[in-house]
Design a protein that fits this description.
The complex is a heterodimer of chains A (111) and B (383). Chain A is an alpha/beta fold. Chain A is built from five helices and seven strands, in the order E-E-E-H-E-E-H-E-H-H-E-H. In chain A, a hairpin with a 2-residue loop joins strand 1 and strand 2. In chain A, helix 1 packs parallel to helix 2 (56-71). Chain B is of the alpha+beta class and 383 residues long. Chain B is 35% helix and 26% strand. In chain B, the strands form four sheets. Chain B has a five-stranded parallel sheet, sandwiched between helices. In chain B, strands 6-17-14-11-12 form a five-stranded antiparallel sheet, with no helix packed on it. In chain B, strand 7 and strand 8 (184-192) form a beta hairpin. Classes of the chains: A alpha/beta (111), B alpha+beta (383). The interface between A and B is large, with 33 and 40 residues. Chain A: Residues 19-111 form the STAS domain.
Amino acid sequence: MIVTTQINGAALVANVTAAEANLMVADAFKADLASLIDDGNKLIVVNFAAVIYVDSSFLGALVSGLKYAMANQAEIVVAGLNKDIFGLFQLIRLDKAFKIFTTVDEAAKSR
Amino acid sequence: MPVSKKILLVDDNRLVLEMMGKALDKEGFYCMKAISAAAALEILIKERPDLILSDYHMPDVNGFQFRQNLIDSEFRDIPFMFLTSEVDNKLMLEGINLDAVDYILKDTPIPVIVTKIDNFLSTVREQHERTLQELSKAAIALNLNSIPKKIPVVKGFDIDFWHKPYQNYPGGDFIDFITINDRYTFVVLGDVMGKKWGAWYFSFGFLSYIRAAVRICVAEGNYATKSILQKINSVVYHDPVVSDVLSSLSLLMIDAECGEIKYSGAGDLPLLYYDASVGQSRQITSSGMLLGLMIDGDFDEIVIKLETGYKLYVLTDGIIDFEGTDGKRTDYNTFAQAIQSFFNQPFTAFKNSAFLKDKTANHIDDCSLIYIEKKSDDSNNTN
């Protein structure tokens, strides 16, 4: 697991620990998301609070996780985006695909 | 390509860690230090070294167990050497048999250790380059190009592009110009989310679908970029081979007769539009989501009217990634500002600019930029 996890209410929080979420960790992240969904988690909050930069490989893994979640009646939301990453989500319309929350606590209450 | 020299040192003895780290740093290596196997794993999750140099005798998890754990993990292919004082022949053999590339004794003089590491990393690099050459040869033989060799000639327009693959590997960006006739030309710029070969391979899948969708729609008399994009999205969404891989796409159709461009985008960056009449630029943002993400990609179609001297820039995200002293960041505005002083110059001036030179030297992803300028109808193309 390259993410650390904790339960928060009805949600499972997956903390991305890499400051630079890039190609090197993208495949492992994708596998982590898939296994969390396979474990039956219905609301996964991906917490970006420790992340400074994301590249498109990592976003690809996140989006691929979202597709897998939807196929399994689960939901992935994101929290803790810094200004640049939030800007990037908006630029490429990922804000339409993901619910975005300021904090993990807000995200965990979203379902 | 320079030899990368990032080493993860693992030893439970802080003194050894510091001394060896200092000696290797002095020789130009970049050392990360871990006091235990568990600490090493924490580092590996965040940063990938070119080589792991580990002690055998460590409490909790010894060097062999650590190696075995790595073999069973996603870090199995990181080269591993033992650096230990254990001289028992049987144990040494056991260590080597754990797919370790070498077993070095701690009393080996530092210059010898450095040479061994250097030689090993050079061999890895040479093999890597050979593989790269073979793959490139195969790609050329199959006539696989995700970047066009020719720029189309469109009456009343200047078209050009600039592209740099990430670390000179073919990558996930793809560009195509599809000339239907003297009047209609399609411009395609996409970015498969990923880098290097994995993304490159999929870029052909996407390009094939895009070319087919454009040709089929045009044959049916349908020139709407929105409906073409919907067709592409639907195929990608349902195809298990590419549906797990996401790609952005900017699809433009130049109508040379009307001097108009129709534009639809899928999760792409806003176009930068330069209005020569007011000497200002603005972003044009489409509404569509990444290809294959949702069955309904929420695509729109924007008609862009270009007058003489107006310019349009289509780009992928590599060009808005910047590396500063405080780390990497993604910032569209920095790019928009950098290009501002080139609005009154030919595109070649921007191609030769310090901004793009810096991108070539320090870029962190594939970079692509397509340039479209409206000329007066009776002018010759000057690119």
